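Journal club prep — side note

Before the paper discussion, L.F. wants everyone to see what a predicted structure for a comparable chain looks like in token form. Sequence:
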Amino acid sequence: MSTKARAYDYIIVGAGSAGCVLAARLSEDPRVRVALVESGGRDRRSEVRIPAAFTALFKTPYDWDLRTAKQEALGGRELYWPRGHVLGGSSSLNAMMWIPGHRADYDAWGELAGEEWAYDAFVRYVRRAERWAGAGDPARTTAYGTDGPLHIAPLRDPHPATAAFLEACRGAGLPELPELSGPDHSGCAPTPVNQRRGRRWSAADGYLRPALKRPNLHVYTDTRVSRLHFDDTGTRVNGIVAERPGANTLLARREVVLSAGAVGSPHLLLRSGIGDPDALRAAGVRIRVASPEVGRHLQDHLATAITLRTTEPISLTGAKTLPNLLRYLLAGRGPLTSNIAEAMAFTRSTPELAAPDLELIFAPVPFVDHGLAPPTEHGLTIGVVLLQPESAGTLSLGADGAAVIDPGYLTSDGDLRTLVAGVRQAEALFAAPPLARLTADPMGEYPGVLDDAALGELIRATSQTLYHPVGTCRMGLDPYSVTDPRLRVRGVPGLRVVDASVMPRITRGHTHAPTVALAEKAAELIQEDAA
């Protein structure tokens, strides 16, 4: 490859959920040249395809293996944040849950960033991405899209205990929903997953792989971007500088689009001199554009869990056997098709709330410490997720230029009260007959029912991320937002951000689906602005 700078119309940084969408959609026009630049490698490991094996990718080269700053409200702990470092990004190592969220999420976006981001206008981009493979009710039409690039399906072989969880939810007054694709997901349901015939179906599978044959799309893997490249005026971004021999500078005739995620995109802006002037000056970075909000408004879903032993050896513990592997490889069936998080319920901590603020996730296995250590005992887990945190954090530059991730978990007392309420609901479900007859004593870090004060301390000591950071390059109508409603970086011509970092509020769901949808919308915006 020549050391001379290569030129493209569009350069996309990051081949995750958003980057794969953009690369596919923008390269549909044969008149434009598109470069997709990914720091990680190709998605070749078998664990990418096997749903139940996703935690085997954690702390490998497929994972950025990030850690937060010490969280004072969590006992001074530094939390592990796995993030995808591979084609497909985190969609290649997540739990494959396709949960767009609640109408209220997008209506809140509409208030902050314009009506085109509100639910009624935005939902069509969710549907555009979807290819539903479930049978559905023949008496009615599914709300899911049916012609999109991303396969969505019910689990092929759900664990029998998952039905017991759903029965317990119904007994608690939670309606079982026929699907989780409607505007209000209050209730319980089996998990819809990004799988095709029992195998993971990532953004790379659905969007990128069919586009690779196009001569106008060039994918760079194992290519880390160190900073943005500015033109001779010093005001317009016209390329990137990468850490790869022979391709260290790529130029963009039209736009550079950052799709490096809620950590990577603001980090690259800061390293390039776009951020709070005082902070940049303190870090020794040349100031290009004053944008104080870069890296602020970081939100994430914090989760805690309760786990009980089972009375019989019935869980997924020990499911990775040769017969199960052969069943998976030959038929795409069996326990290895499980995404582990097989069902969920969306509930309210107090009944007067207009929309859920809690998610209860059921796993027919002990899920402890991100699944890094295979369980040796049989058990069941209910994870309790804080869907609408009041707390927010920041991403900033450290003295060495590395990203300092401070989510600010539980810095609002209301968040702890909500999680305590969620644990009480999970305990009640375990105490209900459908699950009580399967379970025995507590296991892992959960000691059993505690009073509220002791439970609060347990939550502070044991809660972990659910892997959904957003908001660090938030979009908005206000002049202080990092990106405008068309996702252009304010004050920086030629530069856009398209990923979860632009979300002005975290959703009541899982962030892969809304990230894909906003990238579908962004592709339209980019094409409109080029016309």
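L.F.'s comment for the group: DSSP finds 13 helices and 25 strands in the chain. Keep this in mind when we get to the figures.
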